[in-house]
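Much of our argument rests on the idea that a fold can be written as discrete symbols. In the encoding step, the backbone of a single protein was reduced to a row of integers, each denoting a local shape. We regard such an encoding as a compact summary of how the chain folds. The record that follows shows the chain in one-letter code together with its fold in token form:
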Amino acid sequence: MGGPDQDVSETHFVLSKKTDPSDRKYPNFSDAEEIGNFSIGPEREYIDGTANLKYLWKREPEGDPGWNLNLGYNEAIRRDRSVHEKMDNLLHWIVRNKHKFPQNPAAKPSSEVPSAEPPRQVLACISCGRSRPPQR
């Protein structure tokens, strides 16, 4: 050990229990709410707003809906599958709409303010089409 001339200090270890991200309350996806929108142009460029937004209008259920899935197929603008867009357009929208996100991380987000940090299980729900995360 140390002699009388040496400084001997104690080492303290602090253990803290952080909450597991999977313990957070998950959002309910049954009621969709639009917080913003963007479009993709004919050349796959980002367009802020609803310029190319299309809506599906459901007809009354009276027999055959008359949907011909081949109609317009030859005139469709094809996406270059060698270009991987990933989440670039979504991230572009987030950068342009920073005002919709909380400035103070300690502030409690309201229903109008989207969270930019969803738990991994929530992303799995969105991408896999499940309404609730799997239970552990």
User: Anything to note?
Assistant: The chain has a mean pLDDT of 69. Helices lie at 88-96, 120-128. The chain has two helices and two strands. The beta strands are 38-40, 46-48.
